[in-house]
Write a structure and sequence with these properties.
Blueprint: H1 16-20, E1 26-30, E2 36-40, H2 50-54, H3 56-59, E3 73-79, H4 82-86, H5 93-103, E4 107-113, E5 119-124, H6 130-133, H7 146-155, E6 160-163, H8 166-176, E7 183-188, H9 196-203, E8 212-217, E9 226-231, E10 234-239, H10 244-250, E11 273-277, H11 281-284, E12 295-299, H12 302-311, E13 315-320, H13 322-327, H14 342-348, H15 354-361
Parallel strand pairs: 4-6, 6-7, 7-11
Antiparallel strand pairs: 1-2, 3-12, 3-13, 4-5, 8-9, 9-10, 11-12
Helix pairs in contact: 10-15
Length: about 350
């Protein structure tokens, strides 16, 4: 970690350093709080500096056309296909983007639950796999070697849609270190990423090896979404305000250190499109609200506009004022405040039952 000249509190766990190292001198290991951090093997390291040069936190500035006053553009939007929309966290726009890419023989990278009920980035090229990437996953995904895989696809001329958190998408762009016309990048408005160790403690009570997890079940509507967990011996549904994991997430007690001072929250982004729930749409543009999910779409580039135009006829949409939209979606530009009980919470994590821990600290 010191070889990167990066403090623990700065590291976003994006895995750019892990992907760039040609000597396999870096491993991503889980720390005592459950966050992945790079560990350098000094016996393999040749001090080439590649890890420091690729780090999006240390690099801090990627190529954005600050003079292009046309962007960003903002839209309220949702998928006309009600089934796809209801299976999505908000308006079902990602599904349309992903299907468009795959229908044109492209590749999509995004976050999916694995067989251990953890979240990891995967590569898909089949329509039937798009559902794996649908829906919010309130956990930091394991990137693995997906930046390398995406680079290989791009060099072979395949069209690639890469989706992730703002730090992950900047990490990919930094790793590639060149422009690809066949690359589309889509990030999100991110609240912050919770600890995988917290998630493991939360699901410990379920004995099923493989769970069907939906953080944003719309059974009672989009605004009053539920956490739904199904399995052979599990049938759990609870509103997010009552679910202990979501309480911990939304009270900002389980997020990664850097999430409380995130440098990737900003108006001008390297992504082509930013997707989010359009909270406040019932006040800003009530005709676009029916409590089944409305997406906030922010177009950041001409490429973003290009791919959006490919799906626009499959949506209902309305252009909105970006400033109005951001008023109700402050995580676009502002980090959340750290919960003052966070350190005490982590000290007791795993020592007492999870629900008791939440009752004590939330």
């Amino acid at each position: 970690m010191n070889s990167l000249n990066l403090s623990y509190a700065q590291c976003c766990g994006c895995s750019a350093c892990y992907n760039i190292c040609k000597f396999d001198a870096i491993d991503m290991i889980e720390d005592e709080k459950g966050f992945l951090i790079p560990k350098i093997n000094k016996e393999k390291c040749v001090d080439c500096g590649a890890c420091a040069n690729v780090c999006p936190v240390l690099k801090n500035k990627l190529n954005i056309d600050e003079n292009n006053e046309k962007y960003p553009l903002a839209y309220a939007m949702y998928n006309k296909n009600e089934d796809e929309r209801l299976k999505s966290s908000s308006g079902g726009i990602f599904t349309l983007l992903a299907k468009n890419i795959i229908n044109n023989k492209g590749i999509v990278y995004g976050a999916s639950f694995n067989n251990e009920n953890l979240v990891e980035h995967i590569r898909i090229d089949k329509l039937e796999d798009v559902s794996k990437l649908q829906g919010s996953k309130y956990m930091q995904s394991i990137i693995g070697k997906t930046y390398q895989l995406a680079e290989k696809d791009l060099k072979e001329g395949r069209t690639v849609l890469f989706t992730g958190t703002p730090c992950q998408t900047e990490a990919l762009k930094s790793y590639l270190n060149c422009e690809y016309d066949n690359l589309y990048i889509q990030d999100i408005i991110c609240h912050g990423v919770p600890s995988a160790l917290v998630w493991k403690e939360y699901i410990k009570k379920y004995n099923d090896k493989k769970l069907n997890i939906n953080f944003r079940n719309k059974e009672f509507g989009w605004k009053k979404y539920c956490v739904s967990i199904k399995g052979e011996n599990v049938d759990y549904t609870k509103c997010y305000v009552e679910d202990t994991y979501m309480k911990a997430f939304l009270k900002n007690i389980v997020l990664r250190d850097c999430c409380y001072n995130c440098q990737f929250k900003k108006y001008r982004r390297i992504s082509d499109i930013t997707l989010a729930d359009f909270w406040g749409i019932d006040k800003i543009c009530p005709e676009m609200f029916d409590d089944r999910g409305t997406s906030l779409i922010i177009v950041n580039s001409s490429k973003g506009e290009r791919i959006l135009n490919c799906i626009i006829e499959q949506t209902k949409f309305k252009k909105v004022n970006l400033e109005d939209a951001i008023k109700m979606n402050r995580c676009m530009v502002e980090s959340v405040a750290m919960n003052e009980k966070r350190e005490e919470f982590f000290k007791e994590l795993g020592k007492i039952p999870f629900d008791e821990l939440i009752d004590k600290y939330i």
